[in-house]
Amino acid sequence: MAWRGWAHRGWGCGQAWALQVGGHICEEVTTVPAPPRLFGRRFNFFIQQKCGFRKAPRKIESRRSDTGLSGGAHKRSALIPPVEETVLEPSPYPIRTLLKPFVFTVGFTGCAFGSAAIWQYESLKSRVQSYFDGVKADWLDSIRPQKKGDLRKEINKWWNNLSDGQRTVTGIITANVLVFCLWRVPSLQRTMIRYFTSNPASKVLCVPMLLSSFSHFSLLHMAANMYVLWSFSSSIVNILGQEQFMAVYLSAGVISNFVSYVCKVATGRYGPSLGASGAIMTVLAAVCTKVPDGRLAIIFLPMLTFTAGSALKAIIALDTAGMILGWKFFDHAAHLGGALFGIWYVTYGHELIWKNREPLVKLWHEMRTQGPRKGGGSE
After folding, report:
1. 273: how many CB neighbours lie within 10 A of its CB?
2. Bridging pattern class, strands 48-49 and 24-30
3. What pLDDT sits at residue 145?
4. 3-class SS at 30?
5. What pLDDT sits at residue 82?
6. Residue 160 needs a FRET pair 20 to 30 A away by CA distance; which of 19, 200, 237, 285 works?
């Protein structure tokens, strides 16, 4: 490929060039911050297409975000791993890209709420037995010699002092910490990028919609999300119950990622996303909708308080502006999708979905209580 000419638009954080390549003009490209060596034998720079080629003279070597790490310096958010920039040609049929994620979102949400209804049935059925088992255990502890400094006893004491909501989200937090540790293993980087970041440009579309909601590359990102989840855990579990909360949380992670997919395909701004922010926004929005007069405060500014309703309005306004203006530090579409799902669910979804679970529970009850036929024969 011969470079016939270039027009330099100034040196700075990034360089802009107008190139004439093989008779076809690329109207604008940008380079990385490092200034190129104009008179050396090598002229290496990373090209990010701005306005597009009028006619591609030859096929550009693709660099997929889910197959490896970038060796170049590309401007990105510190919250995502150093993924290679994806070179894409917009699909003439973007609806095909969203069809499988849409089916997965609907199917997974239905399975999540169905499983939660069965889980609640089994929990209610075993409470009586658990009560008598607990009485027996307390009696045995009273006659058994107590060990001083028993670690297991201290852990049980700490666990029993937690609220139902805190015990529920402890498993979610543990899963996020484990995935964060996996990001630190160099040999797993490609697998993590492929399955634990959601990107409509990836070959794997559906599974990352769930797994990426447990995935954090930045310690600060994970700590902030888990702190918010822990802070709102007692309130949301008191409102929904343990089983319904888990169904809402898992569904929110998938739904928020689907909204992110739709926004990325519609705008052509492809790129990887990860984090539990979409699901946590559902939790926050649900609590703020149910308790709009509750007082909230910022962790570093406890003297500054505001109502939950005002906080929710500000967050929705911020994410709407970020989605429209194309801010890239956060996945604002996922945040907005999670918040809207949380508002919808506590307003309408609880009545439409959870209160209509009775037919499924009855079917499960019949399957559980129907014993084997005598003689083992069939009619």
Report:
1. 27
2. antiparallel
3. 55
4. strand
5. 62
6. 285
Closest of 6, 43, 9, 45 to residue 26, by C-alpha: 6
From the list 213, 215, 277, 332, the catalytic residue is 277
- Asked about 256 being catalytic, the answer comes back as no
CA 376 to chain centre: 49
Rounded-to-integer distance, Cα 193 and Cα 85, Å: 13
Residues pairing with 20 in the sheet = 25
- Answer whether 208's CB lies under 8 Å from 195's CB: yes
Say whether 378 is catalytic: no
Q: Cβ distance 113 to 226 under 8 Å?
A: no
State residue 286's pLDDT score: 94
Which residue in 216, 221, 332, 335 is the catalytic one? 335
Identify the CA nearest to 333 among candidates 275, 259, 277: 259
- Rounded Cα–Cα distance for residues 51 and 62 (Å): 18
What was the pLDDT predicted at 372? Answer: 53
Cβ partners under 8 Å of residue 181, min gap 6: none
- pLDDT at position 101: 93
What tens digit of pLDDT does each residue of 152-202 get? 777 888 888 888 888 999 999 999 999 999 999 999 999 999 999 999 888
Alpha-carbon gap, residue 74 to 47, rounded angstroms: 10
Round to the nearest angstrom and report the end-to-end CA distance of the chain: 78
